[in-house]
Backbone:
């Protein structure tokens, strides 16, 4: 199989999608089926390509596209292969899911635009991952950003969506500018756009730091690190759910890929300075805690999931920061552990976040409600969606024996095995970051109890929730793929880690080696069995045993008697008496007042006297502090500056002429 | 004589306990507990002095231990408590910022002190540099107590805590100061406490309160 | 093979003796309060009664409500199998280390909260909300305490940690004292004892843990109550074996195991006595003083970490 075929097969199939979409414009149902299945097929082939990339030595490919003196360089190595697997798996699932999701809307919406945008979006992501020169990278980065903009403003009738799209585009381009400036620093040092040259070039410490900062900020903006995250909770909720799944599950991982490619591969960790790792670790810890704190206060399901993505990117960044610190201080094995933990969490998050967004789409499809407080009791109406969503919730909360726990466990091990770093303040930062990671993980569990409990359990709070119908099997199959993978990745990490380990060989001087599967397929021992080990199969086995015992009791004898709920003797339980999302998060609002600065408004309607209350209306508003303290002041200062420049516009003809004259004089003066 | 290894462990234990008393001073809400921990700090100081005296055979340190016990362990806390009762000051320690953030700042100060004292050359006693780090940290925490409390009495205690920390560092790290210097410092501090007492009475007479905000408004 | 057998025996010991632990605690509290208190076997009689009674399910409850007691019991039982009690080498402790232990408790708590939300009552929601929030705040303190311990033992594997603490002469290490204090404070929060939560309260608005299991009855309630008792015994055993492991058996010999059993029982009774004293002398804290309490635990653990870095270890 030639390199060309291997590398280009996935994108090529995705490229077929817009054409098929245009060709089949008349047959709406058939078009929906074919285009989405093509996307799914593209995803599967991309996964295969990724696996090939991880298992074999790097393939390079030069295509005669692009500028005359700069053809398109593509490269498939272990790092690119891993991220292609991530992209491919989610594309396949979302493709299958979209058949069902778009079917109901296929008659009304502009499916052509959606198909073209999705196809370009996927091609853009694949291109970024495969790129081997700066030009190709930026072109595909822009393709990815602009096509996702069209996905964000897909329902452009609402003004809020347009504003969200504008913010998204603005920040995407700011990020792109920053990434471009880091590439220009690397270009200036090596006089070439090709990554091969950039890899070997040496930078002075000052320029290396500037490249690190601009690339870090640019990719951080796209990934959604605090405080550059403000576009994420605005943009991800308004896109169609299958697009949100891809954006939150895959696109922000491509930003992580970019960070690894530019800083770890091109600049090289041997040029890293001590504070780089510390900065990355601090950014990761604050994103992890800040993201989940904000997520806890949301009552819009998709916005909550978006903030949760911010948190998980923080967790990935913590792993990366730890790895950078260890690599700098000369502990390559520990650095490999940190890298493997971060990459494992990347894969895990793509899977369970994609699953959760698809579930949110299913809920939206069935009930037409986004607000958690308008749902309830869906476990009886939508049992399969409930089970799949529950798997997603347990995975994201980092509970054994599912996959979220494995990556968090690995990150904790990397943090706990930290030796005393010679004379550096970082040795105290590491245990503090580990503690913040523990806090973030536990708060995530709280958040997803809230989500699952309020949406699926209890009794329905509105008629739409009471009359919801289970979604069709296309959507369920699309969700089942990541769910099954979550379980498999949780129980068999020993099989997956050797693959990811190949990336550590690529980026670091060492890898975890065979110690990960020391002894047998049962125990996961990253460093040595005495240090730490984990046997997920035993935990899984115990849980299944418990379920089996429960089932035995279920089947034995007569069914368990049901009665009216006791509730301490309160009669007439109605759905209004349940906890809502707002009430569930009230203790946290009270504890973290400084972070939330909540504004509560209580309005009472009474029957003529203050004690005879007819109705109470309670509303609380929490804000994202990044807006209040960073973005609004920037916006105000920009407005102030531009207002000061207003006189410029008010000049009359003589004013403009004299300015031109002045410019001419100055230019003449400089030339002569 | 006790082995140097055991002495080293005892010194580090004493340093850890001293750090604990500094943090406890920072965490107290009630005036009585606050002055109680200050007394505990004084007693701990005396014990450390006695321990160093016993192990190194410098008998002057027994005298400073005795002085520390009497003055810092009993006399000054008792004087301050008497002032609190006589002036009828509100028995609560009023912090300017919440206790939890104050403690986090204190933890950062400890780290800062550690990294500031890293370049100090290791002397014959291996533990010296680390004990200097803890001592410096407690001095900074004493300053923090002075900054983050509203009442004048708590600021005096903060100042005295700083002095305690300096004394501890001198004793544990360098086996004490010349006795003359010590006695001089001890009497200086006693006079300072008496003068503070006089000031408090005067402030109270003028403003009817010891809250420092009154000293700031000239109206 | 014998190791596995002993491991299962240890687990059964913990599971079987858990109700007796709670009974002993109740007896001690009664003596302190000048009462006679229930007999030591009463807890077993209560559990047997609950197992034999017919369970009633609320009308709206789903399969999650029914699955929860089994998952909670299984997770806690697995935790019992992991913690070394009388013998340091347990093969199952390679299956899960301290972090996984915390994860197992988190799994049990997750399902209990889901079961509470399933009922659709205000009390269920309240219990779930409070329990998850305060458990989340206890996590950093627990992790920091574990960190200090694992730095001293250079491992997170429970067997290795206990073995290292037992064998090496650590002398006076203040960081371990700080870690012990922090973990004691966290253990009281996790097991829901006074001053964090009153396990025998009848006032629903003061409940944290009890509010989550209000609707369970019959064998479901029995399993959950038993799991609770196991959790208390587990935390006590963990703290005893990690911080004062003297007497624990290093090799499999009859006499060593008997001595280990005896010392464990004595230390357990001492710890229970201190807990009884604490519960009798203190009142339950107001709910929103809990973050201060947990913040205090976190700060003590940070102090332990600081003293470890500055005063101990290689300079």
Residues:
């Amino acid at each position: 199989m030639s390199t060309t075929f291997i590398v280009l097969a996935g994108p090529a199939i995705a490229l077929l999608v817009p054409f098929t979409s245009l060709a089949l414009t008349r047959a709406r149902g058939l078009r929906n089926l074919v285009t989405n299945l093509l996307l799914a097929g593209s995803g599967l082939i991309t996964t295969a390509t990724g696996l090939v990339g991880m298992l074999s030595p790097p393939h390079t490919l030069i295509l005669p596209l692009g500028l005359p003196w700069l053809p398109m360089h593509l490269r498939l190595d272990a790092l690119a292969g891993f991220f292609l697997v991530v992209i491919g798996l989610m594309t396949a699932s979302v493709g299958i899911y979209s058949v069902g999701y778009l079917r109901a809307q296929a008659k009304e919406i502009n499916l052509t635009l959606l198909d073209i945008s999705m196809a370009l979006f996927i091609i853009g992501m694949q291109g970024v991952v495969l790129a081997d020169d700066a030009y190709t990278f930026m072109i595909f980065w822009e393709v990815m950003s602009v096509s996702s903009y069209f996905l964000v403003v897909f329902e452009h009738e609402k003004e809020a969506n347009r504003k969200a799209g504008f913010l998204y585009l603005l920040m995407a381009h700011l990020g792109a500018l920053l990434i471009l400036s880091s590439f220009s620093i690397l270009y200036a040092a090596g006089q070439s756009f090709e990554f091969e040259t950039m890899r070997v070039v040496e930078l002075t410490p000052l320029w290396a730091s500037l490249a690190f900062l601009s690339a870090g900020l640019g990719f951080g903006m796209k990934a959604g690190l605090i405080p550059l995250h403000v576009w994420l909770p605005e943009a991800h909720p308004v896109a169609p759910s299958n697009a949100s799944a891809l954006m939150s599950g895959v696109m922000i991982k491509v930003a992580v890929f970019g960070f690894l490619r530019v800083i770890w591969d091109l600049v090289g960790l041997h040029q890293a300075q001590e504070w780089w790792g510390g900065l990355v670790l601090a950014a990761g810890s604050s994103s992890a805690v800040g993201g989940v704190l904000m997520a806890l206060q949301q009552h819009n399901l998709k916005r909550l999931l978006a903030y949760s993505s911010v948190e998980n990117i923080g967790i990935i960044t913590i792993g990366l920061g730890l790895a950078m610190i260890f690599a700098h201080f000369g502990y390559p094995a520990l650095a490999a552990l940190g890298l493997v933990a971060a990459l494992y969490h990347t894969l895990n998050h793509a899977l369970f976040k994609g699953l959760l967004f698809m579930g949110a789409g299913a809920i939206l499809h069935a009930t037409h409600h986004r607000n958690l407080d308008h749902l309830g009791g869906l476990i009886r109406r939508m049992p399969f969606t409930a089970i799949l969503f529950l798997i997603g919730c347990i995975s994201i909360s980092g509970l054994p024996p599912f996959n979220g726990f494995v990556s968090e466990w690995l990150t904790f091990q990397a943090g706990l095995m930290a030796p005393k770093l010679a004379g550096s303040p970082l040795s105290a930062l590491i245990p503090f970051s580990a503690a913040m990671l523990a806090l973030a993980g536990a708060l995530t569990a709280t958040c997803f109890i809230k989500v699952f409990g309020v949406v699926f359990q209890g009794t329905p709070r509105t008629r739409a929730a009471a009359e919801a119908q289970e979604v069709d099997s296309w959507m369920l199959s699309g969700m089942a793929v990541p769910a099954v993978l979550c379980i498999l990745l949780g129980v068999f990490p020993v099989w997956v880690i050797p693959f990811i380990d190949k990336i550590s060989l690529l980026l670091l001087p060492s890898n975890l080696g065979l110690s990960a599967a020391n002894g047998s397929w049962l125990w996961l021992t990253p460093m040595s069995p005495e240090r730490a080990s984990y046997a997920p199969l035993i935990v899984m086995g115990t849980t299944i045993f418990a379920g089996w015992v429960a089932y035995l009791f279920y089947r034995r004898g007569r069914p368990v008697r049901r009665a009216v709920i006791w509730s301490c003797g309160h009669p007439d339980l109605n759905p209004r008496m349940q906890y809502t999302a707002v009430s569930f998060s009230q203790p946290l609002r009270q504890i973290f007042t400084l972070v939330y600065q909540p504004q509560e408004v209580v309005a009472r309607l009474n029957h003529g006297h203050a004690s005879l209350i007819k109705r109470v209306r309670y509303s609380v508003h929490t804000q994202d502090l990044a807006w209040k303290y960073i973005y609004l002041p920037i916006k105000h200062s920009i407005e102030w500056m531009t207002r000061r420049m207003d006189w410029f516009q008010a000049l009359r003809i003589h004013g403009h002429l004299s300015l031109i004259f002045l410019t001419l004089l100055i230019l003449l003066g400089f030339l002569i | 004589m006790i082995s140097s290894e055991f002495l080293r462990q005892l010194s580090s234990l004493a340093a850890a306990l001293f750090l604990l008393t500094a943090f406890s001073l920072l965490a107290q809400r009630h005036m009585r507990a606050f002055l109680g921990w200050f007394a505990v700090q004084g007693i701990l100081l005396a014990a450390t002095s006695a321990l160093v005296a016993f192990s190194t055979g410098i008998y002057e340190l027994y005298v400073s231990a005795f002085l520390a016990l009497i003055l810092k362990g009993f006399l000054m806390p008792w004087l301050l408590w008497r002032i609190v009762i006589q002036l009828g000051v509100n028995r609560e320690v009023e912090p300017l910022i919440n206790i939890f953030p104050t403690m986090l700042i204190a933890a950062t100060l400890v780290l800062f002190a550690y990294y500031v004292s890293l370049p100090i050359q290791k002397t014959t006693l291996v533990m010296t540099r680390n004990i200097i780090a803890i001592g410096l940290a407690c001095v900074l925490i004493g300053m923090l107590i002075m900054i983050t409390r509203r009442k004048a009495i708590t600021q005096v205690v903060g100042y005295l805590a700083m002095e305690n920390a300096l004394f501890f560092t001198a004793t544990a790290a360098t086996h004490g100061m010349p006795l003359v210097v010590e006695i001089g410092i001890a009497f200086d501090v006693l006079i300072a406490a008496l003068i503070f007492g006089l000031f408090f009475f005067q402030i109270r007479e003028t403003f009817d309160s010891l809250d420092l905000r009154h000293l700031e408004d000239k109206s | 093979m014998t190791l596995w057998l002993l491991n299962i025996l240890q687990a059964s010991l913990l599971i079987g003796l858990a109700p007796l632990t709670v009974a002993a605690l109740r007896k001690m509290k009664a003596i302190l309060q000048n009462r006679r208190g229930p007999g030591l076997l009463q807890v077993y009689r209560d559990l047997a009664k609950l197992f034999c009674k017919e369970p009633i399910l609320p009308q709206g409850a789903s399969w999650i409500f029914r699955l929860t007691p089994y998952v909670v019991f299984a997770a806690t039982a697995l935790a019992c199998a992991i913690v070394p009690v009388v013998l340091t080498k347990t093969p199952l402790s390679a299956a899960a280390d301290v972090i996984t232990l915390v994860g197992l408790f988190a799994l049990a708590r997750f399902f209990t909260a889901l079961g509470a939300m399933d009922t659709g009552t205000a009390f269920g929601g309240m219990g779930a909300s409070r329990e998850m929030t305060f458990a989340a705040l206890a996590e950093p303190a627990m992790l920091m305490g574990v960190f200090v311990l694992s730095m001293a033992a250079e491992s997170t594997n429970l067997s290795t940690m206990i073995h290292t603490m037992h064998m090496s002469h650590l002398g006076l290490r203040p960081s371990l004292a700080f870690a012990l204090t922090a973990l004691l404070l966290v253990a009281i929060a996790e097991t829901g004892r006074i001053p964090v939560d009153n396990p025998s309260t009848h006032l629903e608005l003061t409940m944290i843990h009890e509010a989550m299991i209000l609707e369970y009855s019959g064998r479901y309630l029995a399993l959950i109550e038993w799991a609770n008792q196991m959790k208390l015994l587990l935390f006590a055993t963990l703290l005893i074996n990690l911080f004062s492991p003297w007497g624990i058996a290093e090799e499999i010999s009859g006499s060593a195991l008997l001595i280990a059993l005896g010392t464990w029982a004595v230390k357990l009774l001492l710890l229970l006595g201190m807990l009884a004293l604490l519960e009798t002398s203190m009142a339950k804290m107001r709910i929103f003083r809990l973050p201060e309490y947990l913040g205090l635990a976190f700060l003590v653990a940070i102090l332990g970490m600081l003293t470890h870095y500055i005063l101990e270890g290689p300079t």
Observations:
- The first helix of chain B runs from residue 4 to 27.
- The helical segments of chain B are 4-27, 31-56, 60-87, 99-116, 128-147, 152-174, 179-207, 213-216.
